[in-house]
Design a protein that fits this description.
Keywords: DNA-binding, Transcription, Transcription regulation. It holds the Pfam family HTH_24. One of its GO terms (molecular function) is sequence-specific DNA binding. This is Winged helix-turn-helix transcriptional regulator. The chain has 159 residues and is an alpha+beta fold. It has five helices and four strands. A four-stranded antiparallel sheet has the order 2-3-1-4. The radius of gyration is 20 Å and the shape is elongated.
């Protein structure tokens, strides 16, 4: 039975503010939300213990670092019972940055980031094709990412 999380409006405000700017100090966030920095610290600790807050990440412009190809791969499995085994193998490929188990046409859907088309070809041809259980794949190359954002959280979502 899942644990009932006792989150209130302040918890959701902290989550939303930190998703927008994870570098904000607890003191500044406290001022913004009209509570003490100590209260923010205690709440963040609670959110970490619940597993809601899982650390912070640096947002990087991949294109500026020379990663020019973002692609999505629909993966057809020979049978769905192979998901865990295939996922474990896919996790070994560093260019795959996200993997989802899906409904619909594909068993799995992966996001892949590469420096160029040659690297993408290598991953598709030399890495993915070796994995037992993958029947076939379908690749979609992203021409442009129009936007990326976090979900808007609020206290009515937990209701």
């Amino acid at each position: 039975m899942p644990v009932k999380l006792n989150l209130d409006k302040l918890d959701f405000q902290i989550i939303q503010e930190m998703m927008e700017d994870a570098e904000i100090s607890y003191a500044d966030l406290g001022k913004k939300l009209f509570v003490s920095g100590g209260t923010i610290h205690v709440r963040i600790k609670k959110l970490q213990e619940y597993g809601i807050v899982k650390g912070t990440r640096l947002s990087v412009d991949l294109k500026a670092l020379g990663y020019d190809v973002i692609a999505f791969i629909g993966i057809f499995l020979e049978k769905s019972s192979l998901y865990d085994t295939v996922a474990k193998e896919l996790k070994k490929i560093p260019e795959i940055v996200r993997l989802n188990y899906t409904t619909g046409n594909y068993s799995m859907f992966a996001e892949i980031v590469c420096k160029d088309i040659q690297q993408l070809r290598f991953v598709l041809h030399d890495e993915l094709q070796k994995i037992k259980g993958i029947e076939r794949t379908e690749t979609f190359i992203s021409l442009e990412e129009s936007f990326a954002r976090n979900v808007l959280v609020n206290d009515t979502a937990a209701g």
